[in-house]
Amino acid sequence: MAKALIIYGSTTGNTESVAERISRILQQTGIDVSLKNVTTAKVEELGGEYDITILGSSTWGDTDIEFQEDFAPFFEELDKAKLQGKKVAIFGCGDTSYEHFCGAVDLLEEKMGQLGALLVNEPLRIDGDPGDAQSDIDSWTEEVGKKALI
Ligand SMILES: Cc1cc2nc3c(=O)[nH]c(=O)nc-3n(C[C@H](O)[C@H](O)[C@H](O)COP(=O)(O)O)c2cc1C
How far apart are CA 146 and CA 98, in angstroms? Predict the structure, then answer.
């Protein structure tokens, strides 16, 4: 059975709700999913036994890009992650009214490139209430699920 690891950071619950939706959809396709709040995750777990690793953070800040507060220390540790050649997908919530829309997603994308990870599709950037983006989340997740199984 294919295995997926989802790690998310969320302050008001938006990214958490997206992570839960992604998890449900992947489980429905028969993938074994470990869903973790970043507060309970360790970078050493990334890659490893998982066919795909999925990372999600909302963006905070104003002139500077800031990760969701729990995700920030995790990001600092990411250089230690053994993701070379491993499949990865990225998502995050944000708001286009800010200068750096989903800036955390941009920084994660850049970091995955530096680590030699294989991004399986275009990262998912959600503007505003994720409840209005359900079909985007569903189609993005279906794509990720298919890539995980290849
Ligand atoms: C003080 C503040 C700063 C924010 N900064 C950004 C930002 O720089 N870029 C962005 O895309 N969204 C920004 N947002 C929007 C949040 O990322 C958005 O509300 C998101 O849905 C929160 O997700 P979470 O509940 O999972 O943390 C900001 C929101 C607040 C309240």
Answer: 33
Whose CA is closest to 127, among 108, 90, 102?
A: 102
Is residue 42 a contact partner of residue 115, using CB atoms and an 8 Å limit?
Answer: no
Residue nearest to atom 19 of ligand 1 (CA): 94
The token duo for 116 is 């030699």
Residue 113 carries which DSSP code?
H
pLDDT in tens, 59-96: 998 789 999 999 999 999 999 999 999 999 999 999 99
Structure tokens given for 109: 């994308």
DSSP per-residue letters across 94-115 = E-TTSSSTTHHHHHHHHHHHHH
Indicate the CATH number of 3-149 among 3.40.50.880, 3.40.50.360, 3.40.50.10610, 3.40.1670.10.
3.40.50.360
Cα–Cα distance, 36 to 30 (Å, whole number): 19
pLDDT digits (tens, 9 = 90+) for 113-148: 999 999 999 999 999 999 999 999 999 999 999 999
Best residue among 98, 101, 107 to mutate for probing ligand 1, ranked by most atoms within 8 Å of CB: 98
Full-model pTM: 0.98
